[in-house]
What does this fold into?
Amino acid sequence: MTTPEPAPLYRDCDFNGPLSDDHSARLIGTLGPLDGRHVVDVGCGWAELLLRTLASAPTATGFGIDIGEGAIAHGRANAAERGLADRVELVVGDAGQWAGANADVVFNIGSTHAWGGDPVTHTANALEALSGLLRPGGRLLFGECFWTREPTDAELAAMYDTPRAQYRTVRGLVDLALSYGFRLRALSQASLSEWDDFENRHAKAWEEWLVENSGSPDAEEIRALSERHRVARVDGWREVMGMAYLTLVRV
Ligand SMILES: C[S@@+](CC[C@H](N)C(=O)[O-])C[C@H]1O[C@@H](n2cnc3c(N)ncnc32)[C@H](O)[C@@H]1O
It folds into this structure.
């Protein structure tokens, strides 16, 4: 165990992904009337987008599931602080083992890996599982990475050896989603400045920790983590990885 523990990601990041306040509000606006709707977020993290959605729709209810205990505890505390605790249930659990529930709206953002299996099958596995959670006419907000151009072998290696076939072009991602029985209602993507803002916040706790604990026996471990992440970012995904947000309507 690292002593002291670096601050959790939620101290510095609003969302666990490249998403600004404005963009999140625009995504919520693509979900259609939310009055009385039930919104389910799979791999919700600390459920910030779910909480903002419920705050915007006073009669909507929500459910979020994530495997991370710390993230769920933080999401519950935020729900209570914002007066949303009676309309949202946040649970610790493995999406792959979860039986699911009928929903009007489902979110799956940056979390296609929650169903496990080979990384090259994550997107398809998620779309299949998510389509089973929605009633016809229900909406899926799906956030998934894509290649902005063909990555080089060196870039893939820098990105923790991401398999080339794990992601596709935006066109390929949309085509795949439609093949699982959806229609495309809206499409947007994270800007480079949203990515940079997320990455800068992501690295903040490690960099602060290194300044404040330079003599710690754990400094080498934290420095290595931070350095590896910098390589993944600067030599890898900053040039080639995009994040697309698809609002899909279940046929
Ligand atoms: C990149 S984060 C995205 C979190 C959130 N959707 C957001 O956009 O802020 C991916 C999340 O998937 C969760 N996750 C990974 N495997 C999971 C599993 N088997 N079941 C449920 N959640 C899982 C992680 O704990 C993490 O919170």
